[in-house]
Structure formats: structure tokens, C-alpha cells
Amino acid sequence: MNLLMTGITGAVGMEMARWLAANAPRARVFALIRAASPVVLKARWSKLAAKLWPEGQRPEEGRFVPVLGDITRPGLGLSPEDAERLAGEVTHVIHSAANVELDAPLEEARLCNVEGTRHVFEVVRTFRRLERAAYVSTLFVAGRRPGLFRETDFEHEAGFVNPYEQSKYETEVYVRGLMKELPLAQFRLAYLIGRDTGEVTRYNSMHALLRLLHEGHVGAFPGTPETLMELSSNDYAAAALLTLFREHFQPGRTFHIGSGARGLPLQDFIDISAEVSAETEPRWRQGAFLPPDIVDEDTYTLLRRTLLQTQNKKSHEVIRLGDTMYGHLTASQVFDCQPVQELLGERVPLPPVRELLRDVLRHCMATNWGRNRS
Ligand SMILES: NC(=O)c1ccc[n+]([C@@H]2O[C@H](COP(=O)([O-])OP(=O)(O)OC[C@H]3O[C@@H](n4cnc5c(N)ncnc54)[C@H](OP(=O)(O)O)[C@@H]3O)[C@@H](O)[C@H]2O)c1
């Protein structure tokens, strides 16, 4: 397999690179990476390889080929030589690059996610040996749509919780059209909080929220104690996606990769966060910090309004983050991930999500939320 991958420097991409190096010895990976020049590209790749694989365990020369490109540019900004090489050699594609900032302005999110995906597949159309392609999406294209969300579900008019997921929904509209002409499947992922070891490779809004909770600034979540949180690990997402891509590929299909009904109840999320926070923060042990309450939507709306009238910057920060995430809690969503769990069985087991959250929190605290990383 000659695989073109976008997003290899991201949380999901790095894990896919590790998985491919360990499990697909015959795969050659062309990794599209943005950089100001070929020299910078080389430097970015060396730094990434050093992070991914310890000295002596690096994949042999030529198995990973960095290619300079930017998905926001037509033709990906490829040099004519690279464009011709990819067109003649690539057999498989995984498009994972995206702007995943939940609060990026919609136009910015669209530029990378909708337009960027269009640019990727316009280039893919030129590939003469293409066998299969994957687009990496998110379960949260469900937006504010309540209840069970299946692999076959898509269109809704419930609105979105943040511009990111709106842009990913709009991208799916494009990708679904493209499925009529290309051997293409899409993979919707859960919210990823770290590696199975607890290591956080890229900090996101969930870590920002966990940090504010750890510092005692989160007073309440909307929802019910049983509301499920769709959290998972980078390792599971990468292993599941690549196993499905290689062994269970079906053009035109959408795969749900997440915990589904085995997700983490909101009450457990709060209890674990408080319990682990108490390991390093004495104010939790002394009762000066209290676990957030779980309240109904109306009560939360009132609380939110009251807090916005105060001058407390931290409260405003919590509200801003909550505004980009809590809509999923109040929609009482459950993502149907059973079909993938049945396909993969014990070969790619779900990570134990309670342990994962504990380990991620411990990693965050040990590294001062990513500031003290070596
Ligand atoms: N992480 C999650 O919780 C999650 C959940 C559901 C779905 N997903 C989906 O999974 C995919 C990967 O997400 P992630 O968490 O790995 O994101 P990430 O950690 O933020 O990484 C994003 C990747 O996209 C690349 N990228 C961004 N803009 C680019 C551009 N203009 N040209 C080329 N590359 C560009 C980044 O490269 P640079 O290093 O140059 O920035 C990076 O490699 C996305 O499609 C996302 O929507 C993620």
C-alpha cells in the first residue's frame, strides 16, 4: 500500500503513524506536512520522528516520505514533481488534517475543513492507482440532534454546538457526494483525550475544561448524572480506523469509532476529576473545592446568566468553553458504535474510559498541563 496521509503531526495522525510503523511493514506513507520551505519540512519531519519513535526504533529510510503541502491551497500547493509522483504511486488515502479548534470563527473552520477537503480530493481524483480513501470525521456532526445517532444518520436541522462541528457537517455533505465517484468511506471519531498511557500529545478544549475544574472554577454542568460523555483514546481511534480501513473497508460507508452506550456517565466524569485532583490539590481534600453540581438546562441557563454579570474572568472562561461543548450534554446523545465494536471485537478493544481519564488527568497535572514537557 502506498498511502497518502494528511494530518500526521496531529493527535490522531501521530498515533496512526505509530500504528502503521508497527503493524503495516509493507506500507509506504507519503505524509503531507505544511512548512515554509523544503528545509523546514525536513526539520519538522526529523522532530516528529524523534517524538514518535525512540532512537534505534525508527522505521527504515523511505517508509515515511514527507511531502510539502497545505490543504488550504488549491492543488495542496504541491510541487509539479510531487503532484506527478503522488498521481502515479498512491493507492490509498487517509485525510485527517483539519482545524479542530471548537471556537474558531466559522469562516476559518470552513477554509481548512470544507475547502481543504475539497482541495485534497481534487488532487486525489488525479491518482491513477487509487484503490480506497478515507475521510476522518467526527461523531459530533450530530450537532444538537438529540437521542441515538447511528452510522446511517446524517441530515438534521437541530443546529450546532460550535462552528467546528458545523464545518465538519458541511464537509460530510461534500464527502457524501464524492462517494458516488470515488472508493471512499468516512470514519466519525469520539472526543479524544490522550494516549492509552495518559500522555496528551495535543491539548484541546476538554483539557482546558478539566484544568478549570481542577482549579475549582467549574460550579455546574447541565445534564443528568447518567448523561454519557463520548470520550476515547488516540490509540483506540487510530487502531480502529486503520484496522477497519485495511480489513473491513466498504466504499460509501460511515463508521462510528467511539464508546457509544459504554461511554462515561457525567457523574463519573465529575467524581473521577475531583478524586484525581485531590491527589495534588489540597483544597479538594480540605473541602474548599467542591465537585460541580449537575443541573437541568433551565437552571444552568440561569446560573450562566448570573455568572456573566460578574467580573470573574475564570467564570467567563468556563462559560465560553461550556458554550462550545455542553450542548451535547443537554441533547442526551448516544452514538451507536456497536457495529464497529462488533466488527473489531477483542482485536481492538475499547480503552477502559475511567482509567483513561484518571491517567490523562495525572499526566496533565504532572506536566503542569503541558507546560513542563521535556
Ligand atoms: N481529536 C479529537 O478529539 C477528534 C475527535 C473527532 C474527530 N477528529 C478528527 O480527527 C482528525 C484529526 O484531528 P486531530 O485531533 O489529530 O487534530 P490536531 O491534533 O489538531 O491535528 C490537526 C492536523 O491537521 C494538520 N493541518 C491543519 N491545517 C492544515 C493545513 N492547512 N495543511 C496541512 N495540514 C494541516 C495539522 O498540521 P500542523 O501540525 O501543521 O498544524 C495537524 O497535523 C480531524 O479531521 C478531526 O476533525 C478529532
Summarize the structure.
By secondary structure, the protein is an alpha/beta fold. Helices cover 44% and strands 16% of the residues.
Going by CATH, what is the homologous superfamily of the domain at 2-195 and 230-261 and 333-350?
NAD(P)-binding Rossmann-like Domain
Which series of helices and strands comes N to C? EHEHEHEHEEHEEHEEEHEEHHEHHHEHH
The biggest beta sheet, please? 7 strands, parallel
The amount of helix comes to 40-55%
Structure in words:
The protein is globular. The protein is of the alpha/beta class and 374 residues long. The longest helix has 19 residues. The model has no long low-confidence stretch (mean pLDDT 96). The chain has 14 helices and 15 strands. Helix content is 44%, strand content 16%. Helix 2 links the parallel strand 2 and strand 3. The chain starts with a strand and ends in an 8-residue tail after the last helix. The structure holds NADP nicotinamide-adenine-dinucleotide phosphate (NAP). The site of NADP nicotinamide-adenine-dinucleotide phosphate (NAP) has 26 residues, from helix 1, helix 4, strand 5 and strand 8.
Write the layout of secondary structure elements.
Layout: E1 2-6, H1 11-23, E2 28-33, H2 38-52, E3 64-68, H3 80-89, E4 92-95, H4 106-124, E5 132-138, E6 147-149, H5 163-178, E7 184-189, E8 191-194, H6 205-214, E9 220-222, E10 228-229, E11 231-233, H7 234-247, E12 254-257, E13 264-265, H8 266-280, H9 282-285, E14 293-295, H10 297-308, H11 313-323, H12 327-330, E15 333-335, H13 338-344, H14 353-366
Helix pairs in contact: 1-7, 4-5, 6-11, 8-14
Bound molecules: NADP nicotinamide-adenine-dinucleotide phosphate.
